[in-house]
Write the structure tokens for this entry.
Amino acid sequence: MTGAQRRQQLLDVGREVFAQRGYDGTSIEELAARADVSKPVVYEHFGGKEGLYTVVVDREMQRLLDRFTSALAAGGSPRELLERAALVLFDYIEEDTDGFRVLSRDSPVAGPPDGYASLLGEVAHRVEHVLGAQFGARGHDPALAGLYSQALVGMVALVGQWWLERRSPSREEVAAHLVDLAYNGLAHLQPPAGRRPGGSRRGPVPSVRGAGRTGSSDGAG
């Protein structure tokens, strides 16, 4: 193999082994054995297990981010964009299961900090632009779009991990259900009762115990 071919082979082997065993459960000996090379070859290309893991994670993050970028750049209604973005993750889980397993595992202390969380944060930032325009058009505070985009992306990511082990219902159906839940809620979004724009309440916070029994005026109507 050429140096580039060997590097690509080690990346593919690393992706598979890290997905199966996780970072802590993977040894440099196993990586070398799976690739049918000596340990010095792994060190030569990546400096060790940490270096290989970092490149594997970075490559998977970029692949998934490129998919999200293409999905959101295609245009469409806000609902279509949200459903397309949700479907991107489920497509990735089904087609690149090893990559998703690597991304969704805990990163080692010495590895890229919060790699998966950073990726989801970037996706949420892009969804925020979609929601922000809608919030402004509907008279809601666009500054809250960031909060709702984090909630939406977090919901999809958790359901994606759940779906990984079940693969049922279909990815299209799951994406549609998630967007129905999210979009119907956003369509009926109301300013929190009794709150000023700055976030402070008018008057004292009602008793949770009392509100649960009697149904306070904050939630009535």
